[in-house]
Amino acid sequence: MLVAIDGPAGAGKSTVARALAQRLGFTYLDSGAMYRCVALLALASPKDPPAALAEHAHIELGARVLLDGREVTAEIRAPDVSEAASRVAADQGVRAALVAKQRATIATGDWVAEGRDIGTVVAPEARLKIFLTADPRERARRRALELGADPEAVLAEQTLRDERDSTREHSPLGPAPGSVTLDTTGLSVEQVVDRIAALLGR
Q1: Quick one: pLDDT at residue 92?
Q2: Would the pTM of this model clear 0.70, i.e. be above it?
């Protein structure tokens, strides 16, 4: 079984998906970490085409994120990598390479997969598709708390990222057909997980 969770930055995708996977006994797939890994490679090798970097990257996801055998769990969460990840995600070649890797990963077993196009592109056949959203200021507050950054600065960056993600030519951010939209503003992680689990009859 596959549960697909999409949504913009700060909506709670990673936290909710990880908690839901633990509740259900499923494996968690953080697709955003894959784009961050490619962004890290692109920052280190700016002359190389990002699509080629994505195609050849060996990414292992789990409690730790390994990129070509090196742990980068904390490194890929740096602000410059986050910004670069949004840029490389707009590259059709990067998306094609990583979508192929994601589809191969979730082909068997039970998964909770999250990202910005899991339900629309990677796995439109998912048993349950969720689109998480939240008030922009609430999303910025959460991200700022996570990063130890200024909420207003995060809000400004988030607004630009939302615009880029929702208007990009390939796989624009948006709810998948047949998905359930959940506004997480004012809800705890447990409350959101409860609502999704209820949709599965769990």
Answers
A1: 93
A2: yes
